[in-house]
Amino acid sequence: MTVHIGAKPGEIAETVLMPGDPLRAEWAAQTFLDDAVCVNRVRGMLGYTGTWKGHRVTIQGSGMGMPSLSIYANELLRDYGAKTLIRIGSCGAMQERIAIRDVIIAMTATTLSTPSRGIFRELNYAPCADYALLEAAVAAARTRDVGVHVGGIYSSDVFYDERPDLNDQMVRHGILGVEMEAAELYILAARHGARALAVLTVSDHLLTHEALPSDQRERSFGDMVEIALEAAFA
Ligand code: HPA
Q1: Which of the residues 84, 107, 142, 232 has the least number of beta carbons within 10 Å of its own beta carbon?
Q2: Greatest Cα-to-Cα distance within the chain, rounded to the nearest angstrom
């Protein structure tokens, strides 16, 4: 047990999928894992461990934003020995060619700041995905009937953004989408010698203002979970 995760030693797998939403962790575990057991309920941040094609997997909610994700990722890496962390979540698209329901695989994550900002001081560290995971996720995504985009994303600290000019600069510099967690995940994995990746479903579009209807979310999120699982065990 850690401060925020109630699992006993050995109850967390080396491979952990991390959706922001704990109810999506429950849904993904019930839909894709065999013999899924709930291993965390602390603060309602549900975590499940089961197997996928015989491989042990944990699906643990991260909460929204980098400070929340940082708590769970730190405890998974430091205390439970997690070796592969894959964020599965939603993002807002920032390029015209990207459509709602498309999948974005994040090579890098630009930020204004992260919970790790203090240790880097004047340095602008470049959070980047594990290449083998990225390559395997791209290969898995290409076998599916889903649009796939690979490149840089923006990990923002705010959903209700009072600085639209920052988004304009992200769009101008080719950033594919915006979410709120990947950069800190990449930094923590690097610090602990682990692998990390973010596989994201486009739920809304910052340029066209379209949004994924709620009745279509499940199917699209399912593609993302399977891409993450195939990448983890490629
Ligand atoms: N902003 C930040 N995070 C997000 C968004 C967004 O528009 N959409 C999904 N996650």
Answers
A1: 142
A2: 48
| C-beta neighbour count of 208 within 10 angstroms | 12
Domains in the chain: boundaries: 15-232
178-214 pLDDT, tens per residue?
Answer: 999 999 999 999 999 999 999 999 999 999 999 998 7
Give the DSSP letter of residue 8.
P
- For residue 181, which phi and psi values (nearest 5 degrees)? -135, -30
Question: Is the shortest distance between the CB of 20 and ligand 1 below 6 Å?
Answer: no
Which of 162, 163, 167, 180 for a ligand 1 pocket mutation test, highest count of atoms within 8 Å of Cβ? 180
203 marked as part of a ligand binding site: yes
The reply to whether 155 sits in an annotated binding site is no
Alpha carbon distance 202, 85 (integer Å): 20
Four-way CATH pick for 15-232: 3.90.79.10, 2.70.40.10, 3.30.450.180, 3.40.50.1580: 3.40.50.1580
